[in-house]
Design goal:
Fumarate Reductase Iron-sulfur Protein, Chain B, domain 2, 7 strands, binds FE2/S2 (inorganic) cluster
Length: 232
Amino acid sequence: MKLRLKVFRYDPATGKEGYDTFELRCEEGMTFLSALQKIKEEMDPTLTFRHFCRAGICGTCTVYINSFPKLACREQVLPYALTGKEVVLEPLDKFPVIKDLAVDHDSVILKLKEFRSWIQDFKGDVRIPPEISLRVEKAADCILCSACQSYCPQVLEEDYAGPLIFAKIYRFLEDPRETCKDIRLTDAVREGRLYHCLSCNKCNNVCPKEVEPATLIRELMTYIRGDGEENS
Ligand code: SF4
Ligand code: SF4
Ligand code: FES
C-alpha cells in the first residue's frame, strides 16, 4: 500500500516556503516519524523535523497531521493510507518555523519561566495523600509537547498564558509542598488571563497524555471561587 505525504517545507536561507510530496510504501507498524525518517534517509536528506525518544515521552515530535496536532512517533500511518488520500504534514501552528517541520519553542520556555514552573517555597517532609497525588500526577503527566498550546484559539491573544501553562500552574497549586498557592492563583488570573479561556475543550481533545488542561482550568476557577479550599 502506498502512502502519499504532502510535507510543508521552509528554507530559512532563501525564505522560500511551500509543500513537497513524497510517496512511500506503507509498512506494518509504521508511524509518521518513521515515514519522515525514511524520506530523510532515502529521498531528501535536507528534510528537517524534531524527534528524540520515539516513545511518546519527550514531546518534541509534534506536527500537524491533516490539521490536527499529533505526536509523529505515536501516530500510525496505516489508517491514513487506507483512505487512499494524500496526508498533509505541517509544523505546529502559532509557533515560528525554524525549518520545514521544526519550530521555535522559546515562547513556551519563556512563559514557563514567567509563571515559575517549579515549587516556589518548598517545605520538606510533607505527606501527600493518595487522592492529591493522583491529581498532581495527572497534571504532571504533561510532556510539554505544545499540542494544546498550538491548537488553543485564545493563544493568539498575546497575554493569554495558554492551556500548557495553566496545567503547570494547577500541578504546583495542587502540590501540598507548595506554600505560595495564593500567588499562583493571582498570577493565573492577572498575568495569565485565566478567564479568557473559552472552555471549548479543544486542548483536552488534542492532548496525547490525557492531561485535560481545560478541565484543570475549570478546577482553577473553582479554587478562585473558594470551593477548592478543601482540596488544599
Ligand atoms: S478550553 Fe480554553 S485553554 Fe483549552 S483550547 Fe479552549 S480556550 Fe484554549
Ligand atoms: S497538556 Fe497535553 S497537549 Fe498540552 S503540552 Fe502537556 S501533554 Fe502536550
Ligand atoms: S519523539 Fe519523543 S514524543 Fe515523539
